[in-house]
Amino acid sequence: MDDFYSPVAEYYDLVARAHSEGDTVLRERLAATALNGEPILDLGAGTGRTVAAIAESVPQCDILAVEPAPAMRAVLMHRVVNDPHLRQRVTVVAEPVDKLHLPDKLGAVVAYGVLGHLCREKRQQLWQLLLPRLSAGAPIFVELLPLEKPIVLPAFPLACETVGKRHYTASLQGEPGPDDTMLLTSCWTIRGGPCPAQVIRNQSVWHTFSLAELAQETRLRAERLTAQAGVLYA
């Protein structure tokens, strides 16, 4: 899987602050789920926002945090190393999804913001790896862009934050790519403080599909949680 995140990893948590609905519902659902002490897989753990949500919601389970992007993983490791509770429970690995070595059993899977980077063939490989390890009723939490087919996506605000003397604004826009893909471009503008203004553009590729299509692929029951988040039940 291509590394679309390292060029803008330092800004990633600014976006997460502006779009926290998925984190909130993840915490609520995990806290209400009986996991029997089985480990939880965080696929595409990023800078660790979902790791923190899992750890706070389910204090008794180990967490396997998978993050291939080096810059994102560096932030994740910093978060884990400096939190004694996370340091005891969280194992960080860099392997991409097609090279994962997983525990025999998983109590839940969190796949926020990652499945759209996988083509259908790669997703099928992932399901073949994950589904036999899930206990009956185990949840797979997913977060998808609300794009079920390629479209022209006009620029819209993504984040607006101030840190120290610098002000960060971001937008996202997209256009159809080959087959089922969207070509997404994020634009970050940073102003203020002692440095000149900066404009940073970053491109990524996202495969478009719906939560219902994921249910068909996995033959699991799906439930919509927010505009972007949902859950599949094994």
Automatic annotation (TrEMBL):
Coiled coil regions in record: none
UniProtKB keywords: Methyltransferase, Transferase
Domain Methyltransferase type: 41-137
GO terms for biological process, alphabetical: methylation
GO MF assignments: methyltransferase activity
CDD domains named in the record: AdoMet_MTases
Keyword hit for Transferase: yes
UniProt protein name: Class I SAM-dependent methyltransferase
